[in-house]
Amino acid sequence: QVQLVESGGGLVQPGGSLRLSCAASGSFFRINAMHWYRQAPENQRELVATITSADSTNYADSVKSRFTISRDSAKNMVYLQMNGLKPEDTAVYYCNAEVLLRRSSYVPQNYWGQGTQVAVSS
Q1: Contact 65, 102 (CB under 8 A)
Q2: CB neighbours (10 Å) of residue 9?
Q3: Which tens digits make up the pLDDT trace of 48-58?
Q4: How far is CA 93 from CA 9, 12, 17, 28, 68, in A?
Q5: How far apart are CA 108 and CA 114, in angstroms?
Q6: Which residues neighbour 46 within 8 Å (Cβ) at sequence distance 6 or greater?
Q7: Of 68, 87, 91, 98, which sits most exposed with the smallest number of CB within 10 A?
Q8: Which phi and psi (to 5°) does residue 20 adopt?
Q9: CA–CA dist 94, 110 (Å, integer)
Q10: If we measure between CA atoms, which residue out of 14, 37, 29 comes closest to residue 94?
Q11: Among 14, 16, 4, 34, which residue's Cα sits nearest to residue 81?
């Protein structure tokens, strides 16, 4: 019903920048909040950034002032601009969306992308 596809990951040196993108497609009424999560090897998946349908944002303390989440609701896209990357930012980054499938829906459904690898190393 809903597909999320991330792109933009890669290998970057410490202090560098990357911009992740996530495209949502399929049949649905509206996307509410969208999130970026990440999971490093042997770690639990953690919430990195959130943007609501009203464009209110929230960030994990570890990425505040370095990462910026944004969205283009007309295109069903969400982005994560990552600046000042550190080796500890290395992880698979996942897009997550809370989706209302129909106009009559009250409870949003949760969808995940397949992830994109970010590696920060010299």
Answers
A1: no
A2: 19
A3: 999 999 999 99
A4: 8, 14, 14, 24, 14
A5: 20
A6: 37, 38, 39, 60
A7: 87
A8: -90, 145
A9: 13
A10: 37
A11: 16
N- to C-terminal Cα separation, the chain: 40
What size, in residues, is the chain? 122
SS3 assignment for the chain = CEEEEEECCEEECCCCCEEEEEEEEECCCEEEEEEEEEECCCCCCEEEEEECCCCCEEECCCCCCCEEEEEECCCCEEEEEECCCCHHHCEEEEEEEEEECCCCCCCCEEEECCCEEEEECC
Phi-psi region of 101 (alpha: psi -120 to 50; beta: other; left: phi over 0): alpha
Express each pLDDT in 37-94 by its tens digit: 999 988 999 999 999 999 999 999 999 999 999 999 999 999 999 999 999 999 999 9
